Amino acid sequence: MTGIIRSCILTPSNAAPIGSLLGFKTAPLVWARKCKRDPTPRPTCLVSLPCCSRMSLLQTATMENYKQFLVVFTLALALGFVAIAFALTWVLHFREGLAWDGGAAEFNWHPLLMVIGFIFLQGVAIVVYRLPWTWRCSKQMMKLIHAGLNVLAFILAVISVVAVFDFHNAKNIPNMYSLHSWIGLATVILYPAQIVMGIAVYLIPATPVYVRAALMPVHIYSGLFIFTSVIATALMGITEKLIFGLKSPAYKESPPEAVLVNVLGLLIAAFGGLVLWIATRPSWKRPREEITQGVSNNSSSPEGIKVGTAMTSRTEQESSLETRRRNGKAEESRRV
């Protein structure tokens, strides 16, 4: 036999997942033949260099996938923090500051707390499940963190809405007449409904599994819909504030405040886009609990965590892999 020979462990429990991860769309026994497996049933087999090269390529792709996630997540965090800094600069330097006296300074709590709570904290809550270094934590712990961040975001949103109504009532300004206020109030109402449904269905252990599975698409879609609505409402709100608040010089003359707030809007939109990208990328999905436990037992180093990222592809194809295992076992039994 020519070339370099490496040994790989193949068992009925891991042949199908490994074959799927390496890109083979065939049953385990057929995949084994592609790797020049000795047909004699044994717990180990010899695999020629091309197959092991595929494993090396898989590990390299896994590391690249992990690096891509880190780049996108770090960029999203940076944009979020910069957006908060811009909001603070706006209300403290260009506006009247912060107070709770019914005046303009009380209104300034509204944009600041919305950026911190309804945008930044809600965005982090959406992607917290996808952080690879949290996969060693229990699913219940991550549910509590997810719910806690959402509850905190809702509290800040309620405070900001109260500040707006107090300011309007003190200055005899009509409430709820603009599209910004309509969509904003709708999201503030939908948000606690989403939180209550999440707690009732996914935090309470007594909820049947089939109910959780049936409502999961609704929970995911409604969460992303609310977050997108918040981003759109914030962009409408800051534009409305500039149009009403800038008189001399006017908004159309692009004074420094207008430029800063326009950049704030771009930061908010970019942050929202990255959060949605992270939340909808299938390869960055948190694996099933049994897979994360395996990663926890074998990932004391960062490399182990990186390997866990690739396991999401197994989660995505769990049912098809199970079918392939059964087909492979049936074919082996017929050949014996």
UniProtKB/TrEMBL annotation:
UniProt-annotated location(s): Apical cell membrane
Catalytic reaction list: Cu(2+)(out) + L-ascorbate(in) = Cu(+)(out) + monodehydro-L-ascorbate radical(in) + H(+); Fe(3+)(out) + L-ascorbate(in) = monodehydro-L-ascorbate radical(in) + Fe(2+)(out) + H(+); monodehydro-L-ascorbate radical(out) + L-ascorbate(in) = monodehydro-L-ascorbate radical(in) + L-ascorbate(out)
A UniProt-annotated Pfam family: Cytochrom_B561
UniProt xrefs under Gene3D superfamilies: 1.20.120.1770
Protein name: Plasma membrane ascorbate-dependent reductase CYBRD1
Provenance organism: Sinocyclocheilus anshuiensis
Compositional bias segments (type: Basic and acidic residues): 315-336
Gene that encodes the chain: LOC107671300
Names of the cofactor(s): heme b
One MF term in the entry's GO annotations: metal ion binding
Enzyme nomenclature, EC number: 7.2.1.3
